[in-house]
Design goal:
By secondary structure, the chain is mostly helical. The protein has helices spanning 2-42, 48-67, 70-103, 108-141, 144-170. Helix 2 (48-67) runs antiparallel to helix 5.
């Protein structure tokens, strides 16, 4: 019992440690990006307070852009409706007709062969439907991890800039 608990603890420890290390890497990358952003904006803006405010506004706007789902949600719904409609209006009636024709056959051997072929065709059509659905929806959800990481980095950069603003105000 103790060994199992230790294994679970080790797995949890490794998982948590790995997540923490990933967050540390994201934070280091965020610090570099903040420096680059401040350097770019410092060419245009000379006042440090305005510079920090502009950087915060830029990052907040970027956050809204990343979290906006907008038309993607509508497109996903339309694709699902179109594919489902095509499958139910074209695919299912055709399969029903084929199965009725198979029922009219008298030979048991032929019926068995036709049923096996029909099942294979139905499975292939279902796989094609799933593949078409997957191909149309993956572009929207495939890079979700990258978006979440970028959101984390942006939040971290905003906090860094807000802390710099507070330090500047306190001085």
């Amino acid at each position: 019992m103790k060994r199992k608990k230790n294994r679970i603890r080790k797995k949890e420890f490794k998982r948590i440690t790995k997540k923490h290390e990933q967050k540390l890497l994201l934070r280091q990358q965020a610090i570099k990006e903040v420096d680059i952003l401040i350097n770019l904006l410092s060419e245009e803006i000379s006042c440090e307070e305005k510079l920090l405010k502009e950087a915060i506004f830029h990052l907040e706007a970027k956050q809204k852009e990343l979290t906006y789902f907008g038309y993607r949600g509508i497109f996903v719904g339309v694709v699902v409706v179109i594919l489902t409609n095509f499958f139910t209006t074209q695919g299912l009636p055709t399969m029903y007709k084929i199965l009725n024709e198979i029922n009219n056959i008298n030979s048991i051997f032929e019926k068995t062969v036709y049923y096996i072929v029909a099942v294979v065709v139905i499975i292939i059509l279902a796989l094609l439907f799933g593949f078409a659905l997957w191909q149309s929806l993956v572009p929207f959800f495939g890079n979700d991890k990258e978006i979440r990481e970028q959101i984390y980095m942006n939040e971290y950069m905003i906090k860094i800039l807000q802390n710099k603003m507070e330090e500047m105000i306190q001085q």
